UniProtKB/TrEMBL annotation:
Ranges for region Disordered: 1-63
Keywords: Membrane, Transmembrane, Transmembrane helix
TM segment ranges: 75-97, 118-138, 168-188, 226-254
Protein name per its UniProtKB record: DUF2232 domain-containing protein
Superkingdom in the source lineage: Bacteria
Origin organism lineage: Bacteria, Bacillati, Cyanobacteriota, Cyanophyceae, Leptolyngbyales
Amino acid sequence: MTDSSEDNASDRAGSSDPAKVGKDEIASEEASWLAAEAELETPTGKSGDQEPSQKDTAGQRYHAGQRIVDPTVPLMMVETAFLASAASLVFLVNYYFPIGPLLRLFFSIPIALTYLRWGSRAAWMGALVSGLLLSVLMGPARSILFVMPYGLMGVAFGVLWRRGAQWSFSIGIGSILGSLGFFFRIWLVSLLLGDDLWLYATTQTTDLLEWLFIKLGFLSQPSLELVQAAIVAMIVLNNIVYVFVVHLVAWLLLDRLGNPIPRPPKWVQVLMDYE
């Protein structure tokens, strides 16, 4: 009897084991599915960590609040080529159909806009492409006269405007580049023509100072140092006025293109009645 009862108990235990095993397998499968769903629903990182690595339609990445440009993006090459050709076209039209100083205001703005939109690499590439295009259309000499100073000035404006420099500082840097470009132009043209244009400028300025001395009642003759200082002062003053007007044009134009530059001094905003 004891043996038969033990056999029956073992049979019942054996018959109940498959059911328990089946329930355990189902429970483990459900637990694994729940764990998988929870893992899929859990974000891989914070939204703030994901945003810097996301790319927009233009192929730009944002990291620490600044745009990181992929140089292989076609839009960058297209815009750089377009702005470089626009700068070259403005210079070409101004040379053959001069409209006073109006078109000169736009020589450096396309290069600066290239820097604001796509960074330093695109700006330097735009200045170089403009020079190469003008060398084909107008010759190497005139293309050099565009790159120095207007190409360099455009890159400098892009750097300063991107970093939020004040107008006084950016106008000072632009005036220095413009003055150096004027002296470079005199040297290059004098070299190509075989004539000293600086001597011609000195003669014309001497005549002007003599006329002023006569009008003011001075009996002395202007010295050579005074004449050359007057030439340098007029060149620097002319470039300060030119760069200031370029800043005004860029301020009004680039704001509407979605690439604003630093705000001008308060008196300029009041004078222009601009909000």
